[in-house]
Amino acid sequence: MATQTSTQETTRTALQIDPAHSFLEFSGRHMMVSTYKGRFTGVTGTIVLDQANPADSSVEAVVDATSVYTGSDQRDGHLKSPDFLDIANYPTLTFKSTRVEPTGTHSGRVTGDLTIRGTTRPITFEVEFFGIEKNPWGAQVAGFEAKSSFNRKDFGLAWNAPLESGGVLVADTVKVEIHVEGSAQS
């Protein structure tokens, strides 16, 4: 969608995040010797993409915390409990960008406010933009991938269990990788 301003033409496209083609993956260390992985499939929100001036782009996303899936019903239940996400009181995770910094033709850093369990902290994602294509139904569709990591304790996710070796059951660092497809609404 192109809009005209009085001084110049800009290309700003509002994209709705498509939950059928978007997800958030996370991973971390388990027992200090192996990796656990999981994903959230309930990702929605809006991306405003300004291709002429990428720094004027923005994103707001909401993740349905109840959609967490790790392949283990027991682990999923524990992640949904007050020990971790406490989905009864905090059913969503949110992200709202505060700055977009281009680093290349199709890459950048997106900094914003991540809220988990009612706690908001800044986080920066390294983002790759895969371009815009027209789908078979005539809508513009864009793809992105974003990566970051954070300390889970910064968001009140402090539960852990000590190991006999002196380590802990769950490491503090969580790696996040987000895959997003957004489509322009007519």
CATH architecture: Beta Barrel
Mean pLDDT across all residues, rounded? 92
User: Going across the major beta sheet, what is the strand order?
Assistant: 2-5-6-8-9-10-11-12
Instruction: Note the quaternary state here.
Output: single chain
Judged by helices, strands and strand pairing, the structural class is mainly beta
Can you describe this structure in just a few lines?
By secondary structure, this protein is mainly beta.
Q: What does this protein structure show overall?
A:
Helix content is 4%, strand content 58%. It is mostly beta strands and 186 residues long. The chain has one domain (13-171, 180-184): Lipocalin (Beta Barrel), CATH 2.40.128. The protein has an eight-stranded antiparallel beta barrel with strand order 2-5-6-8-9-10-11-12. A hairpin with a 4-residue loop joins strand 1 and strand 2 (9-17).
